[in-house]
Structures
1.
Amino acid sequence: MQRTVRRLKDAKMTHILRVQSAALKAIHDYMYESDVVQAMPVVLSPETDPLDHPHFDASVEYYGQRLHLTKSMIFHKQLALLNGGFDKIYFMSPNVRLEEGGLGGTGRHLFEFTQVDIELKEKSKEEFMAVVDGMIASVFAFVIRECEDDLRALGRELRVPELPLKVYESEELRARYGDGFESAASLKEKDPFWITNFKREFYDKEDSVRKGYYHNYDVFWPEGYGEALSGGEREFEYENIVRKMTERKTDMDSYRKYLEAARGGLIPRTVGGGLGIERMVRFLTGQEHVRDVALFPRVPGEHIEF
Ligand code: ASN
């Protein structure tokens, strides 16, 4: 218990939590002013993000139903936009991803974390990117203004990035830096930036003409801090979803209700993404590892102390 108590009493944690509080307030204020409606997250569901990379199962049986801890609210975000009264929604969504222990050393991974998960209806990729640009700039401006003493105590200097944030194509960066282009670009850049077009989950929209071109993106923190947000335009047509699931060998039985909704034409045309809160606070406060900004960190491969 000693490690936990030391962490809880650490004066550095005071500054980090103040910065986090300011950043969260800036996000909520920005969303409110931008007419993005907030809804409450779900933590257990029969269907959740497949997460197309290795991880352990995190599900329970409850009254004869298999319920999974949320890996992301992607499907719930899409369906939430069936409501005709608003076209923008966000959740502060706790996610549990029991990823492999090797990720414990990246500095960016917790197996339990929170993301601000945003989805917009009938909007383009560019419109989504502009919303996120505005959110990031307002977080920086507010934190710099409100947390001067905390940033000084942490030895952290920040600047409000100029908008629009720069946008790179993944292929352009791969040609310049090779396969490790994400880390290389993150080390090189001085402000947050976007990279577009990654081959990823079945729900990320693939161009109907340019096969292998994905209308998705990530935001990266600069100075080597790496990935901040990922998202994309979404597949919403049943045939495309089934084709993409088949290509990825996704177990369709695990997505029965989602597929039923898609077959009924009930998935709205949306675009969105999720930005990791702990990663953002790590960057704002200049910490080495996401564990350093969490009161009770859950690091892949490590035993939880409390
Ligand atoms: N939240 C992300 C999205 O909206 C998905 C994820 O967390 N992997 O695409």
2.
Amino acid sequence: MKIVNVVGTRPNFVKIAPLIREMKKYTKFEPLLVHTGQHYDDDMSESIFKDLQLPEPDVYLGVGSGTHAEQTAKIMTEFEKVCFTEKPDLVVVVGDVNSTIAAALVAAKQNIPIAHIEAGLRSFDRTMPEEINRLLTDRISDFLFTTCEDANINLRNEGIPQSKVFFVGNVMIDTLLDHIHLAGRSDITDKLGLKENGNLKRYAVVTLHRPSNVDAPAVLTGILDALGNLARTIPVIFPVHPRTTRQIEAFGLKDRMFYVDDLPHSHPDTPARNILAVPPLGYLDFLSLLSGAAIVLTDSGGLQEETTILQIPCLTLRNNTERPVTLREGTNILVGNKPEKIVKTAAGVLKNADPRKKSPKYWDGSAAKRIVDILLKKL
Ligand code: UD1
């Protein structure tokens, strides 16, 4: 069974790693890894591959950036050639990025069965490109592997036959649990001056990249105002996504933060009362930074899940989430992107942290095994 696994962006790499490892245990499977090149900077791609011990991609499409249509079209054109040559028995796509829908569409037209990992999530907000990608990918997939009961309900409501839906849990959490000990060896908190007399200080971690937060100058300025306010109480560490860096520069907002451009040379007496901007971090450094944080502020999907398992309060700077289970059973709070609300909620959380102890069902480190067991039976 030749299985072509398609990845393109940083969160895809995190999700595919445990699956490739699990597939490799069975001689029945020949897993191939195709990297579309949607994320291409070393610190968005190569360093994550290394940390996760992912094999070199068998095929690299090198599509890079572009408008949504350009990027999706380029991936489709290049991936179609891969499918013609490799004739896979199954194409596996993960998450909700442009690489996901592009590869799924190509496979569907060649009548190749498709497995979608992380199916069924819905924000019910079609202004998000990811929502379009999720809806369409689920529509044409043959195996829909879900992370939570909400996803099962969404798929049922959309009329997807239940025989295609498999509730298996969360592969991103498989990776987290696999790597948490290794992350303990990272010295990132030392490098960033976050220790005092050998003890961790309280600090916040921020990530931002959604168009709704970083593409409008007024919105991004408001969020940086709120972060600046928070940074008067605790250090705020902000690993900046390349798209956000581009916008911060374009809007003339660079002077809002202190930049550590070259981590190895950063100095431990980094000014604490400031937003500290660092380049995107590797998986292990980021996991280490995350697991010591007092609070996380983000618009990422994966971070809502990771903070839930790490029991760290997470303020999601969006008005909706496709992961409501993290609100009910996790540590996630939706705050939107208005500065006053962000500042007020963060202050409340820091005063009264109330980590909840429950983990969503099947977020237990065995999701990839469940998926591969199902594929072994069904293929
Ligand atoms: C993509 C996904 C988003 C996911 C995010 C994770 C889509 C529609 N969006 O958003 O769902 O949460 O990845 O990070 O697929 N860039 C670089 N170097 C890189 C990658 C990107 O400089 O390695 C810059 C480019 O200017 C590019 C911009 O970032 O135009 C946006 O990249 P793109 O992959 O289109 O979307 P993301 O914002 O990363």
